[in-house]
């Protein structure tokens, strides 16, 4: 069994990497940026390279599913480099390949504001995937960069699912029919995602999991109901964990540079701040407890393995490049 | 025998690639930029990738000496991606690795104006390689990016030769003792370059080769005198050919964005414009004639092969990465 976390936004350092090892994680997608433009995104990749090099005994960057498995087999945690926005492209279709060649393997089409690709889940009007957005989807397919729709608007998401030649992901969200929230996803969307072979990373993040965030058992109930909705083979974990994220980080995520006003992201004026850690999942060392909770809820061993990481691995085998990056001969 | 041109600044298109094939060139270093910052340099790389893909029957990008030889063996011309400035770094040491991973294999430390790395050959004062410059030299060594000193100032060049752990190149210049010109190199510098195993690409570019530009025979005489000075094993060709370069291109090279005044580069007020093509070397289809001219001047067959490309290949084997790029595991 391999444990995979489909999305974290932690401020990683050696201690947080050690927590990954403490939980026995095989793979985690890290967040390299939210609003950063091309140069700032390259800066982030440079920092990530240096950070990974300095902690190569614990983690390694994976660019293929085979590399994830090899790093896992070495007793290390594979990292997939991801961005929660397409702002690193700065509007250039050619930069998909450039960033893929630099190891980026997951990108969300939009973060919390409409961009040149499409609309976010917080925009009142969603005009769908733009003409540039269609090009980006096709180019991400070609270059083996996974498409993430977690913060993306409904119509843009539906059109991305439709236009993508390979399965796409919602790395960290829940069904809105179980937890009503702008960040969560309609049954229609999740069923379309599943019908094309995609995966949803169920999240215990308090703001989008509501009462299911209470205990590991209630979280397992959320997973069970989600599996009933779209099939257990399309359900994974996307903790959205933000270890060591401070108020300034949270402000950058929520406000970026697009507003001078206070924004609450998935929170609200009544619930403005950083959420306290989940007592049953303070960090990734609790990953084995999640497997236990799923078994306790009645998932069969094969289903537990699928949700804990097997489904993500199937997705990565389908979507990530098989061999060398797209730009090389 | 493999023909190598150490530096061209042509505006490449299919016709110019066909000229490379017409001359049987095994490898040429192309100029991807002069003054461009990081994003503009990525844009240039994207254009180059598309251009090479569209002409893959004629050319291929090489990232190792072995790849040069493989592409040459396929009857195509290997291209080394080069920049004539370090402006693509935008002051970031980490971008050496990033651009190396994207296939860049040659970079000049400065173009025609002092930068954060050092001084150019046209600056009245040359304070030498900066502290950042030393870092850049070491990082280029580590990442297998060849250091080019053609337009670099004397002291900065001497210190780069000294600090580099591997041989460095002057891809396109001549000995100043033979053709006095700010762009040409002192005997001291060339001897230091050769002592460390470097290579000088002798150029027939009119502005820096003077009377030696008259015929293939006078050019061969320039090569012979240069070989007498630093040893034939350190002499290659760097044509500095600018096929299809127009006035706007020339203005960009010479003035960039650093001045509103007219600049003449290696020319002068009395000699301001684009130089007419050399009748004996209008384009690279004349490369075989150069070999003949060298033989006519009395070079032995092994020496002809060394100057025509063998010396550059030895340099590439020493300096370019042996295997996968530096940033990958």
Automatic annotation (TrEMBL), chains A, B:
Transmembrane segments: none annotated. It is an enzyme of class 3 (hydrolase). GO terms for molecular function: metallodipeptidase activity. Coiled coil: none annotated. Its EC number is 3.4.13.19. InterPro entries: Metal_Hydrolase, Pept_M19. Gene3D superfamilies: Metal-dependent hydrolases. Keywords: Dipeptidase, Hydrolase, Protease. GO terms for biological process: proteolysis. This is Membrane dipeptidase.
């Amino acid at each position: 069994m391999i444990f995979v976390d489909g999305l974290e936004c932690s401020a990683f350092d050696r201690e947080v990497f050690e927590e990954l090892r403490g939980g026995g994680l095989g793979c985690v997608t890290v967040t390299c940026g939210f609003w950063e433009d091309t140069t700032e995104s390259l800066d982030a990749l440079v920092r990530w390279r240096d950070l990974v090099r300095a902690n190569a005994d614990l983690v390694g960057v994976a660019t293929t599913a085979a590399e994830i498995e090899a790093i896992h087999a070495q007793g290390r945690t594979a990292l997939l480099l991801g961005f929660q926005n397409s702002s690193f492209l700065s509007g250039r279709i050619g930069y998909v390949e450039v960033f893929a060649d630099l190891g980026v393997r997951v990108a969300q089409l939009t973060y919390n504001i409409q961009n040149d690709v499409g609309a976010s889940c917080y925009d009142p009007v969603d005009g769908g995937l733009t003409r540039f957005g269609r090009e980006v989807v096709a180019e991400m397919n070609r270059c083996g960069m996974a498409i993430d729709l977690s913060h993306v608007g409904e119509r843009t998401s539906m059109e991305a699912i439709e236009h993508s030649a390979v399965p796409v992901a919602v790395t960290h969200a829940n069904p809105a029919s179980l937890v009503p929230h702008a960040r969560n996803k309609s049954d229609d969307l999740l069923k379309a995602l599943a019908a094309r072979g995609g995966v949803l990373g169920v999240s215990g993040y308090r703001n989008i999991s509501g009462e299911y965030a209470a205990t590991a058992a209630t979280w397992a109930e959320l997973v069970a109901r989600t599996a009933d909705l779209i099939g257990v083979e399309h359900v994974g974990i996307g903790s959205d964990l933000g270890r060591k994220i401070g108020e300034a980080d949270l402000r950058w995520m929520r406000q970026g540079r697009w507003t001078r006003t206070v924004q609450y992201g998935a929170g609200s004026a009544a619930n403005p701040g950083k959420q306290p850690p989940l007592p049953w999942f303070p960090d990734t060392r609790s990953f084995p407890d999640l497997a236990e909770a799923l078994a306790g809820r009645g998932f069969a061993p094969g289903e537990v393995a699928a949700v804990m990481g097997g489904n993500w691995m199937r997705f990565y085998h389908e979507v990530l490049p098989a061999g060398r990056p797209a730009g090389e001969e």
